[in-house]
Amino acid sequence: MARELSQNGYEVTIEPSSQDLPFALGNYQPDLIAFKGTQGGIILKVKTSHPKY
Questions:
Q1: Is the pLDDT of residue 11 over 90?
Q2: What is the total count of domains within the chain?
């Protein structure tokens, strides 16, 4: 995902620190943020699930 966003012109930060975030998110810690100039950005949290056996 990070590579694709970067190839599409986004500035990507993986595991951003609180100083990297554009605004306070409380206890929420995203896995990735991506910005594209003044067009806005993306805040991403990856959620995984494990199949039940």
A1: yes
A2: 1
Q: How confident is the model at residue 38 (pLDDT cuts 50, 70, 90)?
A: confident
In a domain, residue 32? The reply is yes
Domain hosting 6: range is 2-44
Distance CA 2, CA 8 (A): 10
Evaluate whether residue 49 is within a structural domain.
Answer: no
Q: Distance between CA atoms of 28 and 32, rounded to whole angstroms?
A: 12
Stretch among 15-19, 27-31, 49-53 having the lowest mean pLDDT: 49-53
pTM of the complete model = 0.76
